[in-house]
Amino acid sequence: MSEAVPRETPEEVWTEEHSTPGYVHINLRTDSLSESFQEEGQSVVTKNGTHTFPRSLPDWSNYDVLHKNMLPARASFFIYDTPSDACKRDVTKSKTMSLSGKYDFHLANSPFEAPQFHDLEFDRSSWGSIYVPGMWQLQGYGKGPQYTNTNFPFPVDAPHVPYDKNETGCYLKDFRVPKSFKDHQIRLRFEGVDSAFHVWINGTEVGYSQGSRNPSEFDITELINLNSDNVLAVKVYQFSDASYLEDQDQWWLSGIFRDIHLLAFPKTHFQDFKIETHLDKEYRNAILSVHVELNAHDDVHLKLIDESGETVVSDTKKVKGSYTFNFPVKNPQKWTAETPYLYQLLMSTSSCAVEQRVGFRNMELKKGVFVVNGKPIVIRGTNRHEHHPELGRAVPYEFMRRDLLLMKSHNINAIRTSHYINDTRLYDVADELGLWILDECDLECHGFGDIGGNPASWASDNPAWEKSYVDRARQAVMRDKNHPSIIMWSLGNESFYGRNHQAMYDWIHVYDPTRMVHYEADYGAQTVDIVSRMYTSCEEIINMAREETWDKPVVLCEYVHAMGNGPGAVQEYIDAFYKYPRLMGGFVWEWANHGLRTKTKDGEEYYGYGGDFGDDPNDGHFILDGLVFSDHTPTPGLIEYKKAIEPVQVLGLKDGKVKIINRYDHITLDHLKCQHRIVGPKWEMAFKDLELPKDLQPGKIAYLEPDLKHPAVECYLELSFNLRNETEWAKVGHEVAFGQIQLEKPEPLDLPMQIDSPIGPRYAQITPQVLEISSEDPGTLWQFNLVHGTLASWKKAGSELIHTPPVLDFYRAVTDNDRGGRFGQGWRNSRLHQTQCHAQSVTWSKSRVTGNVEVVVTARVAPPVLEWSVDTTFTYTFTNKHVLIKVSGNPRGEYLCDTFARIGLTLSLNNTEEARWFGRGPGEGYWDKKHSQKIGTYRRSIDDLFTDYEFPQETGNRTDIRWVEFIGNEKTKGLKASFGDLEGASFSALHYTTKDLDDSNHPYELYKKKKNETVVRLDWAHHGLGTGSCGPATLPQYELRAEPFEYEVLLE
């Protein structure tokens, strides 16, 4: 055992940290406190008798004070008595006592109106209670939640916040210290408090801290009673100067929202440790570097064990202060998001032990391409805010873990922690499951862009704020540095660009040169290592990728805005990522809707958004923009994203062989099983196994030879790629990818000839306005309204099928993406939603050849006010069992919108309970959001066809259908519609009209409008969705242009 040479003493570590601007250290052992620690609300009197209130600038409105008495930032770890305890990773066996739970609570309107509740004699018998972790607005206190996207919710006077309207939470808790904590340094650690706080123990002030999502730790050893009760008092301020740097797109919520820990550190203990792994040029062998810092001299023993419990390396050194161990490790298992192999590092002294899991991986740029362990990766990621529908940002562990399991099962491989460091336990789960992490500092000051002038000058390019910016970088890196899942740091979000970002970058790269740094608003990447964009069109990033010279990769830190019914056109981005090496992928905005569960005054439950809690200003339902609903169940958008980013792609069929490609970054397809079958209308064959080639490397192509025997009717080859073995995130047989290839084309739509009877249907004009058509098929009777030019009645065996007649329609309820882009506004401005069909002439006759009755209507479909129209000819052909409707139209006129939302028929049906169809399903699909839906035959109830978006909008469309039939409440057949070989036909069937959806702002409002009848839309064409709520609107190839058209549909 050799003696190590120290790098620096513990005292030097302390001094370096506390000499940092913004840190104030006060000796708690003295009886008197500095003036800045005196009770808020007191005034100061000058010699001439002038009184001034407050006596000094409050800490929470002073950017020169970031922390008082806070210990240096360190990695997140717990102290154990022995290595065997540490090895179990069970926090309950550590030297830790949780102070989370129930607190006595009082809310004051401002810091100056808060009582001196930290006095030990204070009477709190009239106080209420609150739970920690938690947000006080969600536990019945204060003004309630407020949502803004960019605006500050208070008058801007940086760095100051209002003295009067600044809710202040007063927390009190009694606790006893375990006897085992005797002779230990006792620390009080807050994992997250929004937005700033002072803390007292037993009536003595301990310190102050700000930085909501960053931890704060204090030494309270001298203040603790070991043999009697102790009182913890915490005063939390809703707003502080830190709030100017915490203007993220989320709810403004306040309180102690992460755990509080009481930690016992023995007399000799680890202050901190830093782990790095360095791979050789062949990415085979490694050096494990472990830098440890002690508060005293002691022997330090390190041992690295693998997943089987075998020791890989170990060593013992006599350490004075600090030392760096360097272990050569021969060909360790490599950590990636696809192979999350974790070793366990145990570190111990004579009196304690700590542990940290280790993943061997290496990040670098090679010729401008981002690589991990020597191989390029494609980020198939998502942004993730911390959100729970009832608890806000106080997210329970199991709820968070479910999020990450859901991500993995939907092929997501990366998270951007938008826009702050997350609960530290998330990184543990990411290490285990395998997720790349872009770890983002708690920084956004977007609101400065709304007040005029140069927004960067307020904070980002203002030297007075430098210490605040660097502190946020330091806190993030120091806490999270040892997690293998973190492959990049991010300097924050939407904070413009200035010298303080450079200072953050400089600090990070000196401390951690192993990771690259990201920041989108450094648009030219003059400081950071990655070029980043948000909501950039696919065309533009392709142009960037094609530049002749470049030395930095491009990532989309936000793209395909997942608001409401969408996103559309995801696949185009993914194809570009795979095609161009410079493009390293992107993070969808965002993971979850942020609705908060609440109730109307009548007790109707719903998910509230901005404005629903009386909050003003607010940004409405822009907070509902996630891949999962507010209860964190998948939206159709997540299902579509899973398909777009699937790790195996089916590329086509030629000469009886199916071409596939491995889209993983590091692994083969050996963990997958492939099955195939053939599906057709109303039938499907059984799955058969199909052998995958062994050791197919990432990016490589293979050819499979399926059994292609099939009938000579429209049908499809379907391949499914499933897990061979159970994983932490999915069971055996879980489908990770699929593909379908058309084998036979559909038949065109042919009108059946009247071969069973030469007579065919008869007609009679029973009134001047009504033409009645009767069929030889018993009980079939139609009535045609000659004034309106519509099929007004269809009776079968005396029962009326039609509730309202089919009419030509060009409008859909606007989606969030329509509303946010030019299309929805154009449709409303052109009054597309108000069009009506005005018949101009109706003629009818009977064919001498077929016996069919033909009714021809010329009409003008037009809105009020304006002069544009669609000049239309309808041809209805009646057989004994069918009605063939042909429509031709010519859009014309001034102020005609350049696109239509849809071209189709809208009608409503009586007594309809279910729909069965052949086409894509079972979920909803649209022109640019359909690849996740397999072609097959499906049957669903009308209620199940409805996607219940939290802000009502267009919903429930099924696309690429050949036919659909509607089934009555006694399982009797109703109407059937067939589209033949038309590509892109679709239908929807709801209990709501388009107007119902447009006029409702919440689901509970929509539910009251539910119809007994079923509103059916039979569409020949439907405009795409796009991502126009924040990003590119519907792409040109998915636009439904307002041009001449001709379509037909067969009803029976």
Automatic annotation (TrEMBL):
Upper classification of the organism: Eukaryota, Fungi, Dikarya, Ascomycota, Pezizomycotina
Protein name, UniProt field: beta-galactosidase
Entry GO MF terms: beta-galactosidase activity; carbohydrate binding
Pfam families linked to this entry: Bgal_small_N (PF02929), Glyco_hydro_2 (PF00703), Glyco_hydro_2_C (PF02836), Glyco_hydro_2_N (PF02837), LacZ_4 (PF16353)
EC number(s) per entry: 3.2.1.23
An example Gene Ontology biological process: lactose catabolic process
Family from the record: Belongs to the glycosyl hydrolase 2 family.
Family matches, as InterPro entries: B-gal_small/dom_5, Bact_Beta-galactosidase, Beta-gal/glucu_dom_sf, Gal_mutarotase_sf_dom, Galactose-bd-like_sf, GH, GH-type_carb-bd, Glyco_hydro_2
GO CC terms: beta-galactosidase complex
Domain of life of the organism encoding this protein: Eukaryota
Family annotation (PROSITE patterns): GLYCOSYL_HYDROL_F2_2
Catalytic activities: Hydrolysis of terminal non-reducing beta-D-galactose residues in beta-D-galactosides
Keywords: Glycosidase, Hydrolase
Keyword Signal attributed: no
Keyword Protein biosynthesis assigned: no
All copies of domain Beta galactosidase small chain/, residue ranges: 774-1052
